[in-house]
Design a protein that fits this description.
single chain, 367 residues, mainly alpha, 83% helix
């Protein structure tokens, strides 16, 4: 599929388009080579950048998500405001208990904190018994109790009003001390400065923390980008490493074949030399056995006997060959000559018999 003119114009802007696409979709495992080999896919990604963000959300969904996030942040701030106020009052009560444990406390101050603690406990119980304000649903009562039963445990109206009048001042003092301790924790070198200077510096603490938060988020983004870059470089490194390993295996195989041939030749020479050595050793052992078994005179006699026997054997073989040659010539004459040969043999036997008988007779007559 060929790309249109718009694609060629788009892709003719060097590698900046590729860099923009990779920056727009950091979660995709893409490289510039992928975009170069697939221009239509690159064009599709460029068009998608107008409709989605870096996380892959559409513009409409991103808008709705931002609205929901703002609403959530508003409710979260409201909850944090109430929660911080409640925890601040609880901390004030705890501090009062610690001071009362370590020393004497004025009666009016003791009454103030006892009234505050009772009011907080009653409010907490009422909230547990009547969750309709937060869950929009009715819930069975606990042990048959109702919020009205718990409200009867409230302190007297006089003490409650006196407590309400003193809460803002006490809470402000407690929060100021807590802020100053937070400032001392953030910058310990500011601890020995005056309270007024600490208050001025604390007013700028939120801005300092905001800047540090932005720096931290920026560092997180840089770390995320570095992680993506490291992942890509790791993949490229592994690909190159696999190629090097394959090339090294090829070199090793070729070198091993050459070495194997040389090694086999050397082994063959070694075994030939070893066999020759064994044969020479066997001959040497045979000579030693002969020398240990026979004397020199016996060996000379045995050699003469052997020479004589070998000469007789040679003569016998020659005679055998001559007889076999004559026999083969006789066989060529056919069956008639065989009958004549049998008659000749019979006549020779009769002649030898008569000669023997004549010889015996002659010897008898001489006696």
């Amino acid at each position: 599929m060929s790309g249109g003119p718009e694609t060629h114009v788009l892709l003719g802007k060097s590698d900046s388009i590729h860099q923009q696409v990779l920056a727009s979709f950091p979660l995709c495992d893409l490289t510039e080579g992928d975009l170069t080999q697939n221009p239509q896919f690159c064009k599709l990604l460029v068009s998608l950048t107008q409709h989605v963000d870096k996380t892959g959300l559409s513009v409409q969904l991103k808008t709705e998500l931002d609205k929901a996030e703002q609403k959530l942040q508003s409710q979260r701030r409201q909850w944090l405001r109430c929660e911080s106020l409640s925890r601040g009052l609880q901390e004030m009560i705890q501090d009062h208990c610690v001071r009362k444990h370590h020393g004497t406390v004025p009666p009016d101050q003791n009454m103030f904190y006892e009234t505050m603690e009772k009011c907080l406990l009653v409010a907490q119980c009422v909230r547990q018994l009547d969750p309709s304000n937060t869950t929009n649903q009715d819930q069975p009562s606990v042990l048959g109790l109702t919020p009205q039963h718990v409200m009867e445990l409230m302190p007297s109206e006089k003490n409650v009003q006196r407590m309400k009048q003193g809460v803002p001042r006490q809470l402000e003092t407690h929060l100021r001390e807590k802020c100053l301790s937070l400032l001392s924790y953030y910058q310990p070198e500011w601890e020995n400065e005056s309270e007024g200077l600490k208050t001025i510096k604390f007013s700028h603490l939120s801005a300092l923390l905001g800047e540090e938060k932005k720096k931290a988020e920026s560092l997180k983004e840089i770390c995320r980008e570095n992680a993506v870059l490291l992942q890509r470089q790791t993949q490229l490194y592994l690909l190159e490493l696999i190629k090097c390993i394959q090339l090294l295996q090829t070199f090793i195989l070729d070198h091993r074949l050459k070495i194997q041939t040389d090694l086999e030749g050397k082994k063959l020479d070694y075994f030939e030399g070893k066999c020759e050595l064994v044969l020479q050793k066997i001959k040497t052992e045979m000579v030693e056995v002969q020398l240990d078994t026979y004397t020199s005179d016996a060996i000379r006699v045995h050699r003469k006997i052997r020479d004589t026997l070998e000469a007789e054997l040679k003569a016998s073989k020659e005679e055998k060959q001559a007889v076999e040659l004559k026999l083969s010539s006789f066989e060529l004459l056919g069956k008639e000559f065989e009958a004549l040969a049998d008659m000749y043999c019979r006549l020779r036997q009769e002649i030898e018999t008569k000669n023997w008988a004549l010889k015996e007779l002659t010897q008898y007559n001489e006696k």
